[in-house]
Write a structure and sequence with these properties.
This protein is of the alpha+beta class. The chain folds into two domains: 2-115, Aminopeptidase (3-Layer(aba) Sandwich), CATH 3.40.630; 119-255, 3-Layer(aba) Sandwich (Aminopeptidase). It is 30% helix and 31% strand. The chain contains nine helices and 13 strands. It has helices at 13-16, 24-31, 68-78, 97-107, 123-130, 145-150, 164-170, 211-225, 239-247, and strands at 2-3, 36-40, 48-53, 58-63, 89-94, 112-121, 140-142, 173-178, 181-192, 195-202, 229-231, 233-235, 250-261. α3 (68-78) links the parallel β4 and β5. The chain is globular, with a radius of gyration of 19 Å.
Length: 263
Protein backbone atom coordinates (compact mmCIF):
# COMPACT_ATOMS: atom_id res chain seq x y z
CA UNK A 1 0.00 0.00 0.00
CA UNK A 2 1.12 3.54 -0.75
CA UNK A 3 0.10 6.36 1.58
CA UNK A 4 -0.92 9.50 -0.27
CA UNK A 5 0.20 12.99 0.57
CA UNK A 6 -2.73 15.29 1.39
CA UNK A 7 -2.11 17.15 -1.87
CA UNK A 8 -2.91 13.91 -3.74
CA UNK A 9 -6.19 13.10 -2.01
CA UNK A 10 -8.36 14.38 -4.85
CA UNK A 11 -7.33 11.47 -7.10
CA UNK A 12 -9.77 9.20 -5.27
CA UNK A 13 -12.81 11.44 -5.74
CA UNK A 14 -13.93 9.96 -9.06
CA UNK A 15 -13.62 6.30 -7.94
CA UNK A 16 -15.40 7.19 -4.70
CA UNK A 17 -18.51 8.19 -6.68
CA UNK A 18 -19.01 4.52 -7.54
CA UNK A 19 -19.67 3.62 -3.89
CA UNK A 20 -23.45 3.34 -3.41
CA UNK A 21 -23.75 4.20 0.29
CA UNK A 22 -22.95 7.11 2.61
CA UNK A 23 -19.28 8.14 2.20
CA UNK A 24 -19.45 11.67 3.60
CA UNK A 25 -16.78 10.82 6.19
CA UNK A 26 -14.37 10.03 3.36
CA UNK A 27 -15.22 13.31 1.62
CA UNK A 28 -14.26 15.11 4.83
CA UNK A 29 -10.83 13.47 4.85
CA UNK A 30 -10.31 14.41 1.19
CA UNK A 31 -11.41 18.00 1.86
CA UNK A 32 -9.11 18.33 4.86
CA UNK A 33 -11.97 19.00 7.28
CA UNK A 34 -10.49 16.39 9.58
CA UNK A 35 -7.36 14.34 9.88
CA UNK A 36 -7.10 10.95 8.22
CA UNK A 37 -5.03 8.71 5.99
CA UNK A 38 -5.48 7.46 2.44
CA UNK A 39 -3.72 4.45 0.94
CA UNK A 40 -3.78 3.23 -2.67
CA UNK A 41 -2.18 0.46 -4.70
CA UNK A 42 -0.66 2.98 -7.15
CA UNK A 43 -0.40 6.74 -7.37
CA UNK A 44 -0.42 6.82 -11.17
CA UNK A 45 -3.17 4.25 -11.77
CA UNK A 46 -5.01 3.73 -8.48
CA UNK A 47 -7.55 0.91 -8.41
CA UNK A 48 -7.70 -0.14 -4.74
CA UNK A 49 -8.31 2.35 -1.92
CA UNK A 50 -8.25 2.38 1.87
CA UNK A 51 -9.29 5.53 3.75
CA UNK A 52 -9.19 6.09 7.52
CA UNK A 53 -11.06 8.94 9.23
CA UNK A 54 -9.78 10.13 12.61
CA UNK A 55 -13.13 9.86 14.41
CA UNK A 56 -13.55 6.39 15.90
CA UNK A 57 -11.13 5.37 13.19
CA UNK A 58 -13.95 4.86 10.68
CA UNK A 59 -12.55 3.48 7.44
CA UNK A 60 -13.57 2.56 3.93
CA UNK A 61 -12.07 -0.10 1.70
CA UNK A 62 -13.15 0.17 -1.94
CA UNK A 63 -12.24 -0.46 -5.53
CA UNK A 64 -10.52 -3.54 -6.94
CA UNK A 65 -10.72 -6.40 -4.43
CA UNK A 66 -8.29 -8.64 -6.35
CA UNK A 67 -5.03 -6.70 -6.08
CA UNK A 68 -2.88 -9.30 -4.35
CA UNK A 69 -0.08 -7.03 -3.11
CA UNK A 70 -2.48 -4.39 -1.80
CA UNK A 71 -4.54 -7.04 -0.02
CA UNK A 72 -1.47 -8.69 1.48
CA UNK A 73 -0.23 -5.37 2.84
CA UNK A 74 -3.63 -4.42 4.28
CA UNK A 75 -4.37 -7.78 5.83
CA UNK A 76 -0.88 -8.01 7.32
CA UNK A 77 -1.60 -4.69 9.02
CA UNK A 78 -4.93 -5.98 10.36
CA UNK A 79 -3.25 -9.14 11.66
CA UNK A 80 -0.64 -7.26 13.71
CA UNK A 81 -0.65 -7.92 17.43
CA UNK A 82 -2.76 -5.44 19.39
CA UNK A 83 0.37 -3.94 20.94
CA UNK A 84 1.53 -2.92 17.46
CA UNK A 85 -1.77 -1.46 16.24
CA UNK A 86 -2.60 2.11 17.20
CA UNK A 87 -6.39 2.03 17.39
CA UNK A 88 -9.69 0.23 17.04
CA UNK A 89 -11.25 0.56 13.61
CA UNK A 90 -14.72 0.30 12.08
CA UNK A 91 -14.47 -0.70 8.43
CA UNK A 92 -16.93 -0.57 5.53
CA UNK A 93 -16.19 -2.08 2.13
CA UNK A 94 -17.39 -1.74 -1.48
CA UNK A 95 -18.12 -3.58 -3.69
CA UNK A 96 -19.44 -6.69 -1.97
CA UNK A 97 -16.56 -8.68 -3.51
CA UNK A 98 -14.52 -7.45 -0.55
CA UNK A 99 -16.74 -9.41 1.86
CA UNK A 100 -15.40 -12.77 0.72
CA UNK A 101 -11.85 -11.47 1.24
CA UNK A 102 -12.62 -10.12 4.70
CA UNK A 103 -14.31 -13.36 5.76
CA UNK A 104 -10.84 -14.85 6.02
CA UNK A 105 -10.15 -12.44 8.88
CA UNK A 106 -13.60 -12.94 10.42
CA UNK A 107 -13.13 -16.72 10.42
CA UNK A 108 -9.73 -16.30 12.07
CA UNK A 109 -11.34 -14.09 14.76
CA UNK A 110 -9.05 -11.21 13.80
CA UNK A 111 -12.00 -8.94 12.97
CA UNK A 112 -15.68 -9.14 13.87
CA UNK A 113 -18.64 -8.45 11.62
CA UNK A 114 -21.51 -6.18 12.61
CA UNK A 115 -23.99 -4.11 10.57
CA UNK A 116 -24.22 -0.43 9.68
CA UNK A 117 -27.46 1.34 8.82
CA UNK A 118 -28.00 4.09 6.27
CA UNK A 119 -31.18 6.17 6.46
CA UNK A 120 -33.06 8.59 4.24
CA UNK A 121 -34.99 11.56 5.59
CA UNK A 122 -38.78 11.71 5.23
CA UNK A 123 -40.05 15.22 5.90
CA UNK A 124 -43.68 14.11 6.33
CA UNK A 125 -42.70 11.52 8.94
CA UNK A 126 -40.56 14.11 10.71
CA UNK A 127 -43.43 16.58 10.93
CA UNK A 128 -45.94 13.92 11.98
CA UNK A 129 -43.70 12.48 14.70
CA UNK A 130 -42.67 15.81 16.19
CA UNK A 131 -45.67 18.10 15.78
CA UNK A 132 -46.30 18.07 19.54
CA UNK A 133 -42.81 19.33 20.44
CA UNK A 134 -42.37 23.10 20.72
CA UNK A 135 -38.74 24.14 20.51
CA UNK A 136 -39.48 27.53 22.04
CA UNK A 137 -40.01 25.73 25.34
CA UNK A 138 -36.28 24.96 25.44
CA UNK A 139 -33.19 27.13 25.73
CA UNK A 140 -31.44 26.35 22.41
CA UNK A 141 -28.39 28.31 21.29
CA UNK A 142 -25.84 28.09 18.47
CA UNK A 143 -22.87 26.08 19.71
CA UNK A 144 -19.97 28.41 20.49
CA UNK A 145 -16.24 27.95 19.99
CA UNK A 146 -15.91 27.59 23.75
CA UNK A 147 -18.42 24.73 23.70
CA UNK A 148 -16.59 23.18 20.74
CA UNK A 149 -13.47 23.04 22.89
CA UNK A 150 -15.14 21.86 26.09
CA UNK A 151 -17.93 19.40 25.19
CA UNK A 152 -16.92 15.89 26.27
CA UNK A 153 -18.22 12.55 25.05
CA UNK A 154 -17.84 9.98 22.29
CA UNK A 155 -19.58 11.97 19.53
CA UNK A 156 -18.48 15.60 19.86
CA UNK A 157 -17.73 18.35 17.32
CA UNK A 158 -14.03 18.39 18.21
CA UNK A 159 -13.71 14.82 16.89
CA UNK A 160 -15.01 15.77 13.45
CA UNK A 161 -13.46 19.18 12.76
CA UNK A 162 -9.75 19.72 12.49
CA UNK A 163 -9.65 23.06 14.26
CA UNK A 164 -11.71 25.95 15.57
CA UNK A 165 -11.53 27.83 12.28
CA UNK A 166 -13.15 25.01 10.29
CA UNK A 167 -15.75 24.49 13.00
CA UNK A 168 -16.63 28.19 12.90
CA UNK A 169 -16.74 28.34 9.07
CA UNK A 170 -18.50 25.09 8.20
CA UNK A 171 -20.14 23.45 11.21
CA UNK A 172 -23.77 24.34 11.94
CA UNK A 173 -24.51 23.26 15.50
CA UNK A 174 -27.17 23.79 18.16
CA UNK A 175 -26.97 23.15 21.89
CA UNK A 176 -29.77 22.71 24.41
CA UNK A 177 -28.76 24.49 27.62
CA UNK A 178 -29.80 23.39 31.12
CA UNK A 179 -28.77 25.44 34.15
CA UNK A 180 -26.36 27.46 31.97
CA UNK A 181 -24.42 24.43 30.78
CA UNK A 182 -24.52 22.49 27.49
CA UNK A 183 -26.84 19.51 27.95
CA UNK A 184 -27.21 18.18 24.40
CA UNK A 185 -25.53 19.24 21.16
CA UNK A 186 -26.54 18.38 17.58
CA UNK A 187 -23.91 19.33 15.06
CA UNK A 188 -22.74 18.95 11.49
CA UNK A 189 -20.39 15.99 11.41
CA UNK A 190 -19.99 16.20 7.62
CA UNK A 191 -21.24 18.73 5.06
CA UNK A 192 -20.75 18.17 1.34
CA UNK A 193 -22.87 19.45 -1.54
CA UNK A 194 -26.43 19.55 -0.17
CA UNK A 195 -25.93 16.76 2.38
CA UNK A 196 -25.50 17.44 6.11
CA UNK A 197 -24.82 14.47 8.36
CA UNK A 198 -25.93 14.87 11.97
CA UNK A 199 -23.86 14.11 15.05
CA UNK A 200 -25.39 14.20 18.50
CA UNK A 201 -23.99 14.10 22.06
CA UNK A 202 -25.88 14.48 25.34
CA UNK A 203 -24.19 14.87 28.71
CA UNK A 204 -24.70 11.71 30.74
CA UNK A 205 -26.61 13.39 33.57
CA UNK A 206 -29.15 14.82 31.10
CA UNK A 207 -29.83 11.64 29.14
CA UNK A 208 -33.29 10.13 29.07
CA UNK A 209 -35.04 13.52 28.96
CA UNK A 210 -35.58 13.76 25.18
CA UNK A 211 -33.01 16.53 24.77
CA UNK A 212 -31.15 14.80 21.92
CA UNK A 213 -34.36 14.81 19.94
CA UNK A 214 -34.86 18.52 20.61
CA UNK A 215 -31.29 19.44 19.62
CA UNK A 216 -31.57 17.39 16.42
CA UNK A 217 -34.87 19.05 15.57
CA UNK A 218 -33.19 22.45 15.73
CA UNK A 219 -30.55 21.26 13.26
CA UNK A 220 -33.07 19.52 10.98
CA UNK A 221 -35.17 22.69 10.89
CA UNK A 222 -32.05 24.56 9.82
CA UNK A 223 -31.55 22.02 7.03
CA UNK A 224 -35.13 22.39 5.82
CA UNK A 225 -34.86 26.19 5.84
CA UNK A 226 -31.61 26.08 3.85
CA UNK A 227 -32.46 23.31 1.35
CA UNK A 228 -30.05 20.81 2.87
CA UNK A 229 -30.69 17.07 3.12
CA UNK A 230 -30.26 15.72 6.68
CA UNK A 231 -28.26 12.47 6.79
CA UNK A 232 -28.11 9.80 9.50
CA UNK A 233 -26.04 6.62 9.80
CA UNK A 234 -25.26 4.36 12.74
CA UNK A 235 -24.44 0.82 13.81
CA UNK A 236 -27.39 -1.54 13.98
CA UNK A 237 -26.31 -2.36 17.53
CA UNK A 238 -26.58 1.31 18.55
CA UNK A 239 -30.26 0.95 19.41
CA UNK A 240 -30.58 4.44 20.94
CA UNK A 241 -29.26 6.09 17.78
CA UNK A 242 -31.41 3.96 15.46
CA UNK A 243 -34.54 4.69 17.52
CA UNK A 244 -33.79 8.43 17.61
CA UNK A 245 -33.38 8.40 13.84
CA UNK A 246 -36.86 6.92 13.43
CA UNK A 247 -38.40 9.49 15.79
CA UNK A 248 -36.81 12.18 13.63
CA UNK A 249 -38.37 10.86 10.42
CA UNK A 250 -35.44 8.86 9.07
CA UNK A 251 -36.24 5.61 7.28
CA UNK A 252 -33.76 2.75 7.01
CA UNK A 253 -32.65 2.30 3.41
CA UNK A 254 -29.56 0.12 3.58
CA UNK A 255 -27.96 -2.40 5.93
CA UNK A 256 -24.27 -3.11 5.31
CA UNK A 257 -21.56 -5.34 6.78
CA UNK A 258 -19.50 -3.33 9.26
CA UNK A 259 -16.19 -4.79 10.39
CA UNK A 260 -14.63 -4.11 13.78
CA UNK A 261 -10.84 -4.37 13.75
CA UNK A 262 -9.85 -4.29 17.44
CA UNK A 263 -6.61 -2.82 18.70
Amino acid sequence: MIQLDERQYSIILEPLRQVNFNTLFVRSVIAGHTEGKIFVNSVHNPKSFYVVHSYGKMSLLFGDADNRQFNNDLFSYFKQESTKREFDEWLQAYPRAWDSKLQELVSANIIKQYSRLNFSFDKKEYEKNNCQITLNNYHIVPTTIEMFMSIKGSVVPGAFWRNERLFHEKCVSFTVMIDNEPASTAFTSYLHDEYLEIGIETMEKYRGRGLARVACMALINYCLENKLEPVWSCRLENIASANLAKYLGFQETLRLPYYHVPA
